[in-house]
Each structure stands twice: as structure tokens, then as C-alpha cells.
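Re: export button greyed out
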Amino acid sequence: MSSSRGVRKLEVVSPVPADIDIANSVEPFHISEIAKDLNLSPNHYDLYGKYKAKVLLSVLDELESSDNGYYVVVGGITPTPLGEGKSTTTVGLCQALGAYLDRKVVTCLRQPSQGPTFGIKGGAAGGGYSQVIPMDEFNLHLTGDIHAITAANNLLAAAIDTRIFHESTQSDKALFNRLCPPNKEGKRKFSDIMFRRLKKLGITKTQPEDLTPEEVKKFARLDIDPNSITWRRVMDVNDRFLRKITVGQGPEEKGMVRETGFDISVASEIMAVLALTTSLADMRERLGKMVIGNSKAGEPITADDLGVGGALTVLMKDAINPTLMQTLEGTPVLVHAGPFANIAHGNSSIVADKIALKLVGPQGFVVTEAGFGADIGTEKFMNIKCRYSDLRPQCAVIVATIRALKMHGGGPEVVAGKPLDHAYLNENVLLVEAGCVNLARHIINTKAYGVNVVVAVNKFSTDTEAEMNAVMNAAMAAGAFNAVICTHHAHGGKGAVDLGVAVQRACASGNQQLKYLYPLDISIKEKIEAIAKSYGASGVEYTEQAEKQIEMYTKQGFSGLPICMAKTQYSFSHNAAEKGAPGGFILPIRDVRASIGAGFIYPLVGTMSTMPGLPTRPCFYEIDLDTATGKVIGLS
Amino acid sequence: MSSSRGVRKLEVVSPVPADIDIANSVEPFHISEIAKDLNLSPNHYDLYGKYKAKVLLSVLDELESSDNGYYVVVGGITPTPLGEGKSTTTVGLCQALGAYLDRKVVTCLRQPSQGPTFGIKGGAAGGGYSQVIPMDEFNLHLTGDIHAITAANNLLAAAIDTRIFHESTQSDKALFNRLCPPNKEGKRKFSDIMFRRLKKLGITKTQPEDLTPEEVKKFARLDIDPNSITWRRVMDVNDRFLRKITVGQGPEEKGMVRETGFDISVASEIMAVLALTTSLADMRERLGKMVIGNSKAGEPITADDLGVGGALTVLMKDAINPTLMQTLEGTPVLVHAGPFANIAHGNSSIVADKIALKLVGPQGFVVTEAGFGADIGTEKFMNIKCRYSDLRPQCAVIVATIRALKMHGGGPEVVAGKPLDHAYLNENVLLVEAGCVNLARHIINTKAYGVNVVVAVNKFSTDTEAEMNAVMNAAMAAGAFNAVICTHHAHGGKGAVDLGVAVQRACASGNQQLKYLYPLDISIKEKIEAIAKSYGASGVEYTEQAEKQIEMYTKQGFSGLPICMAKTQYSFSHNAAEKGAPGGFILPIRDVRASIGAGFIYPLVGTMSTMPGLPTRPCFYEIDLDTATGKVIGLS
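Workaround output, generated via the alternate export path:
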């Protein structure tokens, strides 16, 4: 059943069928219909098949003078390993606003990594009656952005090793002559990108012939310290055997072996750049200034020093355009970027949010999800993403489940793949009440940014009214603007109408300034400590390695960047087993790294896996193509 | 200027500007216009932006009863390292047929590898006034097919190492129980793909519980011999440091290290499968039966044994649809697949050719290019591609240049990047005449397939009339149907009108049967020897390793496959320095490998590089994005 605006309301079935069956039961609208609802003219998007379109950045120029809609960020309490339905709630809320409350709305979601789809976890398009469709296209390839990131990341990696190799076999003069070869008229010239390095070196000469031998050496010899290289190769596949490898063992590489490894593609700094950039010109600069390691003298070496910043931008030129898709109820979705939520900031892209805010216009809503719990996702949304975008949300949603709250209240461990303890399947109000300390701290922290906080209780069929009342009372006591029960997984947008109404009221009721947790112009350590305090820590301790890195980044002039903590999502603290709202602990910083192009310093609190593996029986055993219909089967 | 059919004729400038400047000087037609000219309805293609569309395989079902057009294959004489303009001639011929001779025509081209675009070679979209546009989209990403191949190839690679790892740490029973876990009702079942392995093992039972312990072991333990693994990882980047690597050095991999390496993506067997498949169902089977190595008992292990054939097909489901683009003069082009021309067969896809033949219909023309010289490209086109497609060409074009013929006649070595010797820039009819032995052998070999041979002399500005007459005389003496001069590089389609007329006549003048060089049901060695004879060899010699491999493949039941010689393109013989038409040599077979899914055995005549490198100053130094216009600059 379609309304005049093209959206549809779902007929739901109980019990809720499998995600793929729900997704396949709905014939998506042609994406040009979705675009039309947003007043997007065909010259503002490129179709990618019938159900996806890339929205072109040019729409931002055209709508520059239009007003933004309301901006809503969805975070969550500290989750169980099963996830508490943050994406599903994000989608359900938008289905409610668009299909039931007749508001213009755009959902902004991260693009999921393709690798894990074939491993354990399955897809990431929401679930039940709150999903993005077609779910196979959402989970696989999409419009090629992650493939572009893989290609760009690995071109830079190849450029690093090859440069070291060529520098090792050539004199300064030979190297320089190869870098600036004579043209047909016998004249040498610098290519445009070389002027970036010349400028960095303080050389203002414009003719290769004019450089002194010392300048030739400084210019041509990057002198990269192989031990300092932080740039790794990437692949969008769960390939654990690439975590640590030795490269360069072929005979032509003359013994120049080096230990390195692969990360999964979404862990690439280029993904973080894509998520944080604001324009093509800005992306060009960020890609060019990505630091891959140091020279032996300790100077940071960038992609532009290697001459490859322009080529990386060319590879990423289409990836900067967000992909338009739709929910089950025909509301528009912009899928764009999917950076890690630990070593990166875990939020979808600034450009998608900016475009969406213009497209929905005043009184419209843009709902964007922040990865992990609010201690990480929302914190980084505010202090990193909003700092670079200059946008501010009016409302923050915090998704909670009775299951996770019981865990925080002292319930038994929740383990993926194992049956839930009976504590989670039967009423236990005391456990819930005890667990609300976790929710309360997330509310208080989030409210401190100056936004209205709405708590969304994502209801499961086993949850009781008494349990839910306990959560609502605790939420209001902690300062929430509102707290509501949602059943969007079972009922689609209809199940999130109360949430939609609460979010509307929260947005309309104030126009607060965004108060950052820390200013940028304090030291790296002071920034780390401000964030640690928000976790409940009483202090921070640094390893020698972390101290050394902080000193180096400060010396290199990078201390003014925001901080992106790489911490477990399963606790406010560094210890995943500490549930609830731990306090008084000392947060240990093992190491400190930087994504200079993306624009943040990331302290490592513990060890982060950046390359997942495959289990004995990966998901792919179920996945196949029905070759008669062309439909994907077995994707979950 | 557009004709009624939507094609345009070019206004040309002399001297010929840079390729990118010509490409950027023409505003392409919207690809839906090109599709309309081919009577493709919008439900038969998916747009990918404004200038690319994927033509859906469903069009083949719809047009099943239509007649095919003429089928023309373009090969070349043995080339210099500079290339003799085979792609350019293919495009120019089509521009002549479509824009000047008013015939329905489709050009079928290979998708170029993206990696080399940033290395030395630049793009592959033709040149001068005979190009495919937009050339940046042609050379980069296109519609993601190579990225899909990379993802699928590497998922299979990850599945191999992970399976060996999990088998090494688990008992037969634990392994089996993990592969067939109990569902919610506690019941174990086989997934569909497991029945393929059960069938291979001759086990007809359908319930996991019914297997004997010995059957459990046979089923669950692939027992892959790590030393037998031929499946390598791939990347579409020139990364020489990945040629030989050691994987598995992370602590979690418990010392299970292994030496392996990366090839460039187009060297993946999956690319060869894409090029040779005829339908979704056929692709599913080919991907599933790809052999990755042997069990310790010597049994071939396939992708389906690993449970991943279905997932590979899902990753490749859009890649099977060819991409529609256009030439500078607005004639349609199908770009699809780009397998290596040595370790694979070097031809664009069967499905693109099949679709094109239906779309142009009777009296229309499909012109498809075969990689390398005709000794390799055309031979494989006939004996591998046409054997699987059941199509046969009416005409074969052989592209020759005065430059290459002079080289074959004894001219000095031609080296890329070095100035040409004066012999190549001044008239020397004797050198040309002497070199025509190379052309003559290609004509004789090609004619033996039962097709009419048209020689196209790709004229350079320094070539003289006497030189060209020498070639035409030699061509006719060797049995060519016709020989004509072309200037499509300088003049677009107008410069290839004579060639177009000759090709039309050649196609109309006969309806020959295709005579293969060898039948499939003789031994591997007899097939190798038949091909070697066509090179001029008087015999073949095999290393011990080659003998061993031939014996193994024969024992495994693969001796009925066609042969795909991996030989240098720079000579008829194995020695690149032997120009002209060498004879009486013994062809050495160093090793023999197989692409069982793609469907061929490939003997290695010498060493083939499957991963290019980057020079000291790669092309990427010139490549950048004009961020104001979004245009790519510096791509060559």
C-alpha cells in the first residue's frame, strides 16, 4: 500500500520471518522514485542499477542556501556481544517518521564490510521489519566504494615498498633524473604534485636544473625508515593468514624483505578520510597528507611525498558520492562510509549527513547512527565528526535492551552462539534496575553535549511491562528528555511511532549549542584524560611506547588533532568484563597512533583486531545464487 | 554532427592531439541513447552513471530465436614492445562500419587491468581518434567486475588456509560436528553445497547421522597438501613486493606459515571463467569446480569441496553482465572480461560476443579483439573460446605495421622508452619485404581455421607508399582475402572505411566451417605438439616437472581440455629475440598447470610474470583530479 509520497506501510506477519525472507517479500521502488520524493533532479544522481543511485556532491552547491533539517544521532548503551539493535532502531525510527508521521526523513547508515558477510556475522541492513533493501546489494559490493578504498590503499602501499627499493639501488642523481625525466625537447620539469614536496622542504625553485646537490638529495630521497611504516595493505575478506606476513621474498626484490600485514579494508585510513571529508578538494588534501611512516631522520612521510595523492583522489572520486537506497517502507537511506569504531571513529559520512540535512529541509529529519556504545560512538560523533562538519544534533537517541541491562545488573555472561541464560528470558526487575547505572551514565554523558536525550527501549517478546517501566523510570531520573518502548523489529515503522513522536518533540524543544568534551588546543594527554574521565576512570597510565609516540606526534605538530580512543565497546572501562558503570580505574594506554589525513590521534587501550577470521563453517556454506532467478539465497 | 542513428562523425585535427585531450573533447551520448540504437529496452540494462550500463543476460533469452550478425576477430602480427594498434584498429573499424558504412556494429573489448594504469603503460581504450569513452571510466573501476573477481578470488584463498588451520586443530568428529551443526531442534543437516562433495565421494546418504566414521573423515577432512596449492591471492595493483610472501606469521595462526604470493587480479582463474562462461548456471558450475590444489592422497580439491562455490557465484553475479560503452563516434562497445593472454586465453567474454551478435542481427557486425599476436590470441580464440561458445567467425583481421615488419626483416631492436632507430623512420622496402615472412605465417595459420583473412596495415605518418605496397603484395601472395591501409588513429572511422568495406566483403563471401587446430580427444602432449607445429617448431621437449604434471592431470581426468600456451608474444618461438618466421626449433615446456574451472590446461613455455611492478617514477605522478570540475587529469 503506497501513500501519496511513495512510501508504503508494511503488512507484518508474526512470528517475524527471517530477515532475507522479509527483504525478498517486498518489491523495492525504483530508486528514481525515492529520489523524486526528495526533490532530487536526475542530474543530481547517477543510477547504479534500479535500486541504488549515487547522489552527487553538486547537490550541496545547489542547496547551499537552504536550511537544514533536524539532526538526530542514534547511540546505544554498552552492548552484549549479540548487539542491541541500534541499526534496526535507526531504520525503524525513520520508517515511523516517513511512513506514519508524514515527515521528510533520511536515514544515514554506514556501508558494511563485505568480508564478514561470509564469515560469522551476516549482513548489517537492520533486521525484521526494519531493514534497508535490497539487502544483498547493501551487504555486497554496493556501488564499489570499499573496493575503491582497497585499490587506493594498496596503490599507496605498493608505492612505499617500491620507492624504498628504487632508492636503495640508485644514486641521488640517478633517482632525481628518473623522477624528473627530460621531455621530448630535452627539458626536465617537476610534475605538479612535486611542488607539494618542494614546498614542504622549503624549496621555492621551480626548475629541476636549479636545485643544488643537497636539495636534489632532500627532494628525491625520502629515506623512509622501514621500521616506522604504519601503512598496511588491506582486503575486504576475512583472511586471518594475512595478519602478519613477510613481503619481498621474490628473487627480483633482492632480499628487501619486510614484515607487515593486511587489515580488513574498512580499517584503512582512507575509509576514515571518506567519512570525515567535506568536499572533493578537502578529500584531495586529506589523502595527500596521510602519513605512512617517518624518514630515518624522523620526518613524517606523506602520500604526496610519494607522488600518489592525486592518483588516490582519482580512485576515490566516485566513492565520495553517497549511495541512495530505501527502507522496507520506502523511506530514503543514504549509505556512505563505514570506518572502524575503535581505530577510527565509527560514524557514517559527513557528506551524506550534509546532503541529507539539505534534502529534508526544515522540519525534516536526518537520523544517523554512531557505532558501538555511546561512550565511543556518540563521543566520537560529537568530538570528531561534528567538529569537522560543523553540524550539531538536536537529539540523541540511546538504544537500550532489557537483555543488556540485565547483563549490566549482574546477569550471567552473554556469549554469541550459545543459548541465553534463563535470567534473560524471564522477568527479573531487580537485575534490570541494577543495570540501569550503565544507561544512566550514557544519558548523563550524552546530555552534557547539550542535546536532548531520548531513550529507545528495543523490546523483545520476552520483556515484561514491569521491566520496561523500570528502564523508563531510570532513564527519566537520569535526565532523559523521554523514554519510549519500540517494537519496530516486529512491526516496522508502526512499532516506532512513539519514538518518532518523542524525537520530534526533542528536536523542536531546543536549539542548543554543541558543547565539546574537550577543546583542541590542549595537549594530547589532557584530551585523553578528558575522555577517560567520561568513562569513569580516575586516571590514565601510559606505556613507554605510548609516551614516545605522544612526544613524536607533538613534535611533528599533530597535537592539535582530536582524539579517537581505540577501546573495547563492551565496557566503559578497558576491561570488557566490567559491566555496569565502573569507576575509579586507571585507563592504560598501550600505544598511540595517528591518522593524520583523516585527522585524529588514536590511543590504543588494549589490542584491537583489524583482520577478522573465518570459522570452521563460515556463513558461505549457505550462500548461493538461484541461477534460474538470479536471486541470492542463504544470506543472513 | 549526429546521423539519424545517433552516431557522430568526428572533426579531426592534425597533428593528432593527446589521447586524453581527444577523449575529453567529445561529449559522450547518454548511454541510454546507445542502448536505444541497439533496440535494447530499459529492462534489459542497468545504468551505471550516465555513460555506462550493464546489459543483462536476460536479453539472450529474449533474442534466442534471432539470427546472429557477422563475427570478426582482430589479431595481429608478432608485435614490437610498443604495440601495433590492435585495439585502436578494432575501434576504428567499428567506427567506420557504424558511422560511415551505416551498419549495425558492436565492438567487443577486454576490460583493462587498473593496476598498470598507474605504472608504466597507461590506459587501453584505443588511441588517437579511435577510442572508447569516457576513457577514465574505461580504465578505472568500470562497473566493478575486476573488483568482484578480486573479492571472490581472495575469499577462496582465505577459505583454503583457514580450512587447513581448522583441520589441523580438530578431530574428525569435532570438525564434522562444526560443519554440520545442530539446528534449533537439535537436528544436523547438510547444506546444499555439501551434497556436491558427498556426490564426488560417492556417498549417497542424505543425513549426517548416517555417515560411518570413515565417511565422516572422508567428507570433513579435505587434507589439503599445502605444497600442492596453486591458488594465489590477487590484487589489481602493481605490487612487486607481493610476488612472493610468507603468510600466517601472526601468533594466532600458531606457526602455520606458508610461502605463497599475489598475482594481479586479471591473472585470476575467475577472470578466465568470466570470459569463457555462457550463463549464470554455467558460471556456478565452473566456479565450483576450480581446483585449488590436491589432497595429500593426490585428489583434486575444488572450491565446492571448500563450500564456497555458491558464495563466489554471488560475488560474481553482476560481473557476468557486460558493460555497454561507446566509441568517439558513438558506436556501441561491450567491455567484458580481460584474462591474461599467456596463462589464460586473452580474449574478451563469450557472453558479450553472444549478446552483441544477437543485437546487431543479420548483416550487422561484431568485432572482437584477440590479445597478443595471432599465434597466441587468434589461436586461443579459435581453439578455446569458439570451442566453448560454439560461435565461428567469418573474417579474421590481422593488424600489421611497417615498423613491426621492419623489425621482423632484421631491423634493430625496438625498446619501449628509447628513441626509434632511423631504419624505422625512413623508407626501407627491403626490410619490410624481408619481414613479411612473419605476416605470411600468421595469414596461413589463420586461414587454416577456414576464415577469410583481411590484413589491415595501421599506417604511421613515416610509412611510404612503396613500403605499404610491399606489404599488400606479400599479404595477397600469402592468401589474404584482402589487404588495406588504415589511418583511423589520425582520422577516426573515416580512416578505416576501406577496411570496413573489405571486412564486409570477406564476411559476405563465405560461410565456412570452423576447422580447429586439434581435436579435444587426443592426449595433452599431442595437443601441445599440434600448436607447437603452428609456431614452426619441429618438436617439443618437456622438463621432468612438466611430464609429472601431464601425467597427474591425465590421471585426474582432465586431459580432454583444450590447451592454452603460456608463451612470449614477441616471437613465434619461445625465444623473444627470434623475429620473422623461425622454424626447426624445439619448443621447451617448463611446467604444465591447469585452470579446471575455466576449462584449459596451460603449459608454461618460459617464465611468465603475473605481477607487474612500479618504476621509479610511475604514471601516477601526473594523475590528479581537478577538484573544481571533477575531471581526471594526466591519465594517458
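Chain A has three domains: 19-143+318-508, 146-312, 524-604. The button fix ships in the next patch.
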